[in-house]
Amino acid sequence: MNMTQDLGYLDPPWEQKLSFILPRSLHQLRQGRFPVIATIWTAIYYFIGASLHTSPPFVITVIMASNVRHPSAEPAEPQSNLPGFGRFKIELSAVLTIKIILELSVIFGYPNALQDELRNATDAALMMIMSMEERGQIDPTDISPLLTALTEMGRHGTARQVEGWFEQYVSIDEGRRAEVLKYQMSPELAEKMVSFISELKETCHTLYDKIQPIPYIKEKMYSVDKVFIEVGIEYCDRQGSWKTLSSYHGIFSIAKGSSRIQIIEGDPGYGKSTLALQLVYDWCNDSSDSPFCKPDIMIFLNLRQLGGTTSIVDAIEQFLLPRDSLLKRRDVEELINNRNLNILVVLDAYDEYPDQHIEDSFVRHMLEEKILRHIDVLLTTRSSCIPPACGSRTGRIRLTGFDEGAREQYVRKAVTGDDEEELQKILEQFNTNPILRDICQAPLFSVMYAHVAHKEEKFHNVRSVTGFFEYMIDCFHSHAQNKVFGDERKQLQTYADDHCKLDKVAFESLTGATQQLLWDKKVLTTKFGADFYGLYVDIGILVEEEVINRNRGATRAQSIQYRTNVRFYHKLFCEWYAAHHLARSVTSFWAWFYDFCEHVNPYDLQFVYRFACGISSAAAKQVIKLVKRKQDGDKFAVLCSLEQEENTEDVLSIVRYLVSRDVHISEKDTRLLQRTTVQLLELASQKEVPIKCLNLDRSFETVDKKLTHIALKSGVVVRPIVYLQLLIVRMETTDVTEQELINILGFAGQCVNLMELRIDGCTLPLAINAESIPNQVISRKMKVFYSRYGYKMRLEAGQWEMDDVDVIRKLCLDGLTLSRDDSVLLQQSTLRLLENSSQHNVPVKCLNLDRSFETVDRKLTHIALKSGLVVRPIEHLQLLIVRMETTDVTKQELINILGFAGQCVNLMELRIDGCTLPLAINAESIPDQVISRKMKVFYSRYGYKMRLEAGQWVIPISCLTLDRCIDKFDVTTSSMVLRSGRSLPCALSVVTLEVTTPGNMSEDRLLQVLAFVKKFKDIEAVLFISCVLPLSIPTEHIDDSLITRNVKVSCCPDNKIQFNLRSGKLESKTELSGVVTITIHDTVASQASKVMQLMVASANNIPISEVWLNRSFSSVDPDSLSLVLGSGLCLPRLSSLQSLEIWTEPGREVTVDEWTGIMNYVKQCQLLKKLHMRFCLLPWLDNNPTDHGHTTVQWYPGFESSTYEIHSGRWQSFISKQVLTREAYDKLVTRFRERFRNSNWQKQRRAKSE
Questions:
Q1: pLDDT digits over 288-316, tens only?
Q2: Is 5's pLDDT higher than 70?
Q3: What global pTM score does this model have?
Q4: Alpha helices in 79-223 (DSSP H)
Q5: What CA–CA distance (Å, rounded) separates 685 from 680?
Q6: Cα torsion at 636, 641, 643, 645 (round to 10°)?
Q7: Residue 258 pLDDT
Q8: What does the alpha-carbon distance between residue 1123 and residue 1162 come to, in Å, rounded to a whole number?
Q9: Distance CA 278, CA 1053 (A)
């Protein structure tokens, strides 16, 4: 067993350690009294050297065995059959005479001491070999230093002899030596790598060297480099934007080492597989101008073949290695896992991969970087089938198809050659037929057309994709029928017309749980019949592939069996035949099709739907009907309708409806949807249908220099639309140059009916050269708007002017920023906006100078920015933020900033951040405007606030909460005494004071709090929580400083109740509506808020429809005639209250005194119409008239359906109107107590009575 193949190459430290230790030990033994032992160790050392490419355990075994030899034993002779480098060293020792040794030691520059040792050594040859090996002058991969030295000595014969031994025993040529050194692999593995690469290239040659542009013309086969033309290529940058890539050579260079996985996506027929084969060609042929010649190994796998394949090694064995390969599975595994090799795996056609939905597939694991993380991966797939989960280092490449230049290049290269007349004839068809031009943006269709059209005049009149493909299929069959006659020709025509079985197989392969686009030849031959199958293979619609069918567990010789797989020439052909099955099934099985459409995205099978609509008008009606129900289905329905060449009026009616609304082309739309929309617009324009609006929503990329089209980010182009009325170009944040703006205007001028252009989302130049504005734009008096800032262009001057003040208001309300990272153009636009805000008296909420601040002019006339622009005082600015980069600001610089702030006459707050400010400045240097306006100045870095009268920073206390801790106020010292006995200092920099004191606060206590609060110089708000404030206090006792400082006094966290210090009255910021409920579950703060809202409403004679006390009622205060709540708060009389409902705790028995108090409260509420008492027992009324005015009093004990009311001083039934007798009342008491016997109230009653 070869251990190196299991363990990898031997770790170099083994050899280094042995080479370092043994030579010195041997020398010491030779110089001592043990020359025999030295000889034994010498032999062992040689054997170790010869065995360095075996496993370490074997080396250790040899050493251990040598340690048990008898001292008198004779040293074993070196074995002549020692492998590799050990055998070479034995042969070398035979020619190293003492003279040669001494000459070599001089040339190698050995120390004199070592030269003396060599001169006197008993075995100088062995010692010299050890010395050379220790110094790297010979090793298993290179002996060139020794050969050079022997040549310099003039010993040419010895040099040739030594070189021969090295070649004979080590067997490494120059190329193999470089590989061994570079990849740190054994010579044996290096040789296998060469074989592996050779076999890969042989297999790949058969793939790229048999390209058939037209499948049925088998005699015309090309190498991929003969027909390959670069299509449009784009890559997705880190910001998610698509950028143009000049060549496929840059696919991996754009990643700059960050993306080891690249996904190449594109629509059907856009050349993904052809590009993949071109990469393989570059590698196989060492194309020096291509970076794809650089990988050491390139592995090309077609994913449609890999259904059920569980590893990449299995795939290589099955599809890439030839039948007679001598490489073993473990050889391939060792090469694939070698991290020193540069390996590129090309996975073609992921959209046809049968196992794409299997989470445990090796392809999924490679894309998620769970295995083989050192390997580069390039995967091709349709845009509608991007792998769901990829690793963090995945890049995106997109093919955008043929443009006119690429199409012409291909026709000239692969079809017409130097025949210019024929070339122009073909190109003219592309240019004059817009539908054909759109179809042939796909390279596959363009190639087919180029090879057939110049011979087939009928092909020139194609008006749909279905017509295009139908004629192509006819050409396939005609080519075969032209070779036979009579009955045989009729039979071929029958096969061409009747292909139902093929249709069904194609449809099931596309719509099954997993796509299965590869079949066994025997299965299809049995299903279709040999003649039918043979025809479709002969004309090239079906293609055969021979692959290995390897059985698990069998030996290599037993397991190699070949089978023939069959596929369609291209997936589009599969979709063509699947569409025939769909077209038949739609009309016959409507319910089935309805369910099918609900579960299938039409964009995943777009050509199946489109072909079906073109094949059958009956099917088209059903398909279009259901497609319209999908998202963006209207546009796709138009695409399907266009396949019906005869139903133009139906198509036009749909088009008219769609273009009567705003037509959007969004960046998020698929390329297919974008192309569909463009085709819709072109059709409307051709039919002279007015198009209301086209909105390019972040999909705009650029305008062609010749103004012939707009290029979208997707690569789709929009040509001038004659009947377009409004064009909106919304870009992502970017700077548009003057020339780019002129080009946009130029394109707008090409749309001859366009009357309005709106540009948004970007930064436009503030002015352009008026002479550069196209004449069509000026003569048509087109309206051009810069929507971002509400500007309209004055065309005759090329300048923007204000058009919409509301836009300025909105922008200024959100706040503006001048950042260091902003372009000069963006800063200029922001400054212009600030000027316009001042001209139109628009408030600017905030201006943030984000690291753009440079200095303030000495005269305080402006702020200079780092860009060189200046900011002048802004009249209506409210907040200025100056965020600097880390620096020390001097006192004078800070004073200058304050001076500029003072020039902004409405500025109330200044924030400075990101720098180091002086801890204090001279208060007299602070501008008067800043002080008089009581401007807030903050040092945000440390949370400081400036006390302007002192010029010092203080640390503001944003909120001080006094939670039930106030004891009293000391009038003599004007201080607040806490329950702990300590006094609260009044010099604190408190911004907000929260006072929590449950209960009703008296006027005196409120005035005491306000008298203390006025001493807080930075106070802005006082918030009372869980207490009820008095309705009013005398204004003469309110300090004027609180009013001038605009201190807010509110009574709940949401500021619904505020105390107006100017009027001295409580005010509510919200109106009462409906029932006001105060429940036992409300917090004290919530109850206080509701009570005060009721008080304010009553004081202002606002009707209160109903108050419901849900188990929150406690008692009645006889002095104030207020209802006392369970929280301790009091609900005073409410003169505007109309209805009061009191739900007591279940089982409560109201005493006579409590009932009298309630009735007295009722009398104080002049407008009260109803009083409802529930779930309680009220006292007996014995003809005792109660003065309750016009109030209806009802009582519901809480059981049965009995409700009572007071009539003539007695309780009577609300329903029967019968008077409640004493006997009946006593029974009611008994039933009440039994009903609520388990209530807390009744339990307490029983406990007291006991």
A1: 888 888 899 999 999 988 888 999 999 99
A2: no
A3: 0.54
A4: 84-95, 98-107, 112-120, 124-134, 144-152, 156-170, 174-183, 187-208
A5: 9
A6: -160
A7: 61
A8: 10
A9: 71
